[in-house]
Amino acid sequence: MKQNILLLFFAIICASCSDDKKSGQADAPYPDGIDSIFLKSCATAGCHLPDEHAEKILDSQHLPADLDLSSWTRLFKGSAHGAVVVPFNATRSHLIEHVTGLRSPRMPPNYVPYNRDTLTLSQVTVLTSWIGDGAPNSDNEIPFENATKKIFTTNQGVDVVSVIDERSLLEMRVFEVGDRQEIESPHGVEVSSDGKNFYVSMIATGDVFKYDAANGAFLDKLSLTDPIALIKLSHDGSKLYVTTNFQVNNTGQNGTISVIQTSDMTLIKPIPVGISPHGINLSRDGELLYVTAVYSDRIYLIDAHADTLIRFFDIAPDVGPSPVYEPYHVGLSPIGNKGYEDYLFITCRNKGQVRIFQRNSTASQHTFTFVDSVLVGANTNSKPIQLDVSPNGQYIYTANSNDSSVTVIQKNGTDFAFLANITKQIDPHDGEEHRLSQPNGVAFSKDGKYVYVANRNKNGAVPPHHGGTGGPGLLSVIEVATNTIIKTIELQPDCYSVFVSN
Questions:
Q1: Which of 6, 157, 226, 274 is a good FRET partner for 339, with 20 to 30 A between their CA atoms?
Q2: Is the entire prediction scored with pTM above 0.85?
Q3: Which phi and psi (to 5°) does residue 355 adopt?
Q4: pLDDT digits over 23-61, tens only?
Q5: Does the structure show a pLDDT above 60 at 12?
Q6: What are residue 131's phi and psi, to 5 degrees?
Q7: In the chain, what are the domains?
Q8: How many CB atoms lie within 10 A of CB 249?
Q9: How many CB atoms lie within 10 A of CB 132?
Q10: What is the spatial distance between Cα 154 and Cα 163, in angstroms, rounded to a whole number?
């Protein structure tokens, strides 16, 4: 009997260890053929081993102090600056860029004082093929294959959509989007509520694409020919609204909202609105579509059931024939006790302010009353772009592109006031500098604890930590409780919009 109990005990322990390994809790190894490359050339004394890779200077570039390549599990913890391997996309993986010498410093370092042997062509080919197959471990598990909480960003500089695992804050997939040789500039992104599909608007070419959100496979597209900007899904996901014919300093009256049937990506109808529609949002009750007409200082109201224009209201009483405020984006408070949002928050790009309106609706009409305006950024030239409202409605975070800041507005009862301006910060734990650079997209996590800010960084104010030239796109992670930037993730160039999908 005692022997049987011992056998049962060991069986349980073995099963538990196996379950830990399957769940990713164990230190999973590389597959055969890959392990020898990493363990002989990368995870060696003085390099990417735990406690042995204190930050060093290599050709004026910093080696991430916490990049551990001693196992598959540790590789996919990334470094302080993000992922080094993107499964299924070797071209966008920093590891391949460094071992091939496309980025400096070259790895392994073949110069004094390191004098390591560079990888052979066959070794690089093996690594590239392995990443292209999803970078599995020895049990053929693919990184992030069970991830459910994701952050999607559009990266206009290289026509890709990056997908970040919200749990690890690592770039888990990079999907190539578009189908033309010229840059199409993915601008807006929306993900269906079931997480199965994502949609992208191409501002340079007027195309709207539908993709599989799991693997990035192309599903369908619609060409609208006119310049397009942002997009918004209906609550049931059956329709996609697109601000169409957005042109800089447009003086025509031909802006429309294109209504697309998502099942087959066909045009249902165009809804005529005013000059250069850009910002777009759908009311919490699904009744109204709000559209900002940048160069006419108006907000257009659209019946989201009949898909017809109801009316518009001016952003301020002093608007005239020339744009004064340039309303760019509209955010909404959470659903209130009346079944819809109580407040609209509108960024005014040309005034450095957010203007706030209160909504009141009856069966026959909708009214919007001006409540207050709050200055954002350092001055009136801060150029606020996008914003988002916390799930509890207490905070509004606004990205100010021109002065590279994020302004926090706080709600106290029925009053709204400036709370903080977030710019450059130094991490007290490791001395790492976090700074915003041309921030644009803003999105809260579903629990309201974090804010994700997409930074275009086209001016290169934040240089690439991984070597090379130009400015990488950045995703800043802000902790709401302290208004601290806790992480800066390097992404693909010109990171523009951000969408959180659970």
A1: 274
A2: yes
A3: -105, 140
A4: 344 689 999 999 889 888 786 766 776 765 444 433 333
A5: no
A6: -65, -40
A7: 25-132 (no CATH), 152-501 (2.130.10.10)
A8: 9
A9: 15
A10: 9
